[in-house]
Amino acid sequence: MKHFFVTREVTGVFVWSLIACAFRICLSFLVGLASLRSSDEETNIWRQQRSNVVVPFAAPEIDGESCVAENQDGLLWNEVATVIAVLASWALAILPSKVNRLAAPGFIFGSTWILYPLRDRFGFIPNLPCRICETKMGRLSLRELAIILPIHFLVPAFAFWLIQLLLPTAIFASYAIDPVIYSEKNPWVVDLVRETFVNALFTVGLLVVPELLRINGIRRGYALLMLYPLYSFGVDAEGKASVFGPNLIYSLRCVSKHEEVPIAQWSHLLGPILGGVAGGEIMALFPDDK
Q1: pTM for the complete prediction?
Q2: pLDDT by residue (tens digit) across 123-162?
Q3: How far apart are CA 177 and CA 258, in angstroms?
């Protein structure tokens, strides 16, 4: 039974890490496509300004079929890029505003569209603050939590290292395992309180919202809408949102930069852990069906 528990935990966390990285790559490319429109507008303005500049003693331009073909290709590419950028902008319009600036990492790693299907498959939510919350509720023992903690730190690091090794180019790898770095302008305790607060609400929401939706006959997929404000809640001076996982901050930093998380960033490591404990205290006030 113990071997099954460990195998299930390792497999669930590993699959979640791979899916979240794939989602992160897709979202990063979507943001990049949406930015084509602004870059094309800047290019057109630069070309217009360049055409208005008179260069003395310049050789006359050759007016031929090659120039016409080149202009047609450029116009066609601009039209295609504009259409792609508009479609990408429409897709991003339904997401939290901070997603467009890649400042909401929790929307990727804490998305209910990823966590809930994995819970159906493996029997648990592969989120460390949520597992700490469940321990406080009595669903897990302290001995089981002692086994879970190293799994949630080591397995994502192995998954990110594997992605870095197997992806065809460094571009894809950088999109997938780019570290989550927070601003250090705020006092350390301020960021710690913010992380604790939002992670406590997040863990409670992960466990309570699907049950509320089920009671009212609403599809579980709408849980993402109810957690929207938490995905955008800023936890540092620049307004970047929480990643909802101290193990992710540690693993991404170690794999991509080959360094430890600095002490100034530890508020974002301890905050989610304390948030899980606080969420467990809140959930302990209500009867548990399990």
Answers
A1: 0.83
A2: 999 999 999 999 999 999 999 999 999 999 999 999 999 9
A3: 12
Digit-coded pLDDT (tens) for 49-93:
444 444 444 444 445 555 545 555 556 667 777 777 777 777 777
* Residue 211, C-beta contacts closer than 8 angstroms, at least 6 positions apart: 289
Taking Cα atoms as reference points, which of 146, 132, 224, 164 lies closest to residue 17?
164
Distance between CA atoms of residues 86 and 37, nearest Å: 7
Q: What is the largest CA-CA distance in the chain?
A: 86
Burial level of 60, CB count in 10 A (0-12/13-18/19+)?
A: exposed
Cα–Cα distance, 143 to 76 (Å, whole number) = 63
Strand stretches in the chain, DSSP E: none
Residue 35's CB is within 10 A of a number of other CB atoms, namely: 14
Q: Is the dihedral of CA 134, 136, 140, 144 positive or negative?
A: positive
Residue length of the chain: 290
State the average pLDDT over residues 149-177: 84
| Cα angle 234-237-242, degrees, rounded to a multiple of 5 | 30
